[in-house]
Design brief:
The structure is a single chain. By secondary structure, this protein is mainly β. The chain has four helices and twelve strands, in the order βαββββαββββββααβ. The strands form two sheets. Strands 3, 4, 5, 6, 9, 10 and 11 form a seven-stranded mixed sheet that branches. The chain has a five-stranded antiparallel sheet with strand order 2-1-7-8-12, with no helix packed on it. A hairpin with a 2-residue loop joins strand 10 and strand 11. The longest helix has 8 residues. The model has no long low-confidence stretch (mean pLDDT 94).
Length: 206
């Protein structure tokens, strides 16, 4: 599954989007529970928000069960996700994500696309607490061999995904649309340390 990704490089145009935090730091290892950037459409304008990675619907009472991933195959039916899929869609910008392969000692791989920024389809929720509204999100995933990878949207797909008036047929097509070819690079095991959030995460294998 998509359990770790990175956002450490962005363009001036991206940093100029409304809501981009002035103190935004680069991150080489973002894990569920972290504060991440979500791009969504608010009143016909693209806007960035800092959200918790792990979906927290307003009705949720058990905060140990906040899913970081949502399966594309069941997104429209599962009670946890179906309203967000219909009404609250966004994307998580990333430079790439990590994938572990193997059995006894898993090897991490760094997965990227041709563009420097990738956009993962996501759904989001708002959770009100004592007069403040917190946002949370889950990344939409698809099966890939014996892994699950984030649903990567191209520019046209992202525009459709973020459109609050997009018909359900269009959204369903995006869930099964062909994915971009990914580049992969085997890494040393520094990134296996969940506490490490530094350039060393991308150290290539010797």
């Amino acid at each position: 599954m998509c359990g770790r990704y990175a956002l450490f490089r962005w363009s001036p145009a991206f940093a100029a989007l409304p809501g981009f935090p002035p103190d935004q730091q680069p991150h080489w290892s973002l894990a569920p529970g972290a504060s991440v950037l979500l791009l969504r459409q608010v009143e016909d304008q693209l806007q960035l928000s800092s959200v918790r990675w792990g979906l927290t619907p307003a009705w949720l009472s058990d905060f140990t069960r906040t899913p970081a991933q949502a399966r594309a195959e069941t997104l429209a039916e599962q009670p946890m996700f179906r309203d967000a899929f219909r009404l609250r869609r966004g994307v998580l910008p990333a430079n790439g994500f990590y994938e572990w392969r193997g059995t006894a000692r898993k090897r991490p791989y760094w997965m990227t696309a041709e563009d420097s920024l990738m956009y993962f389809a996501a759904v989001w929720e708002a959770y009100p607490v004592e007069g403040h509204t917190y946002l949370s999100a889950a990344v939409v995933t698809r099966p890939a061999a014996n892994q699950r990878r984030p649903l990567v949207l191209d520019q046209a797909g992202m525009t459709a995904w973020l459109d609050p008036h997009a018909p359900m047929e269009t959204l369903q097509q995006l869930l099964t649309a062909p994915q971009p070819a990914l580049r992969e690079r085997p890494l040393a095991t520094f990134v296996n340390d969940p506490k490490l959030d530094a350039p060393e995460c991308l150290t290539p294998v010797n």
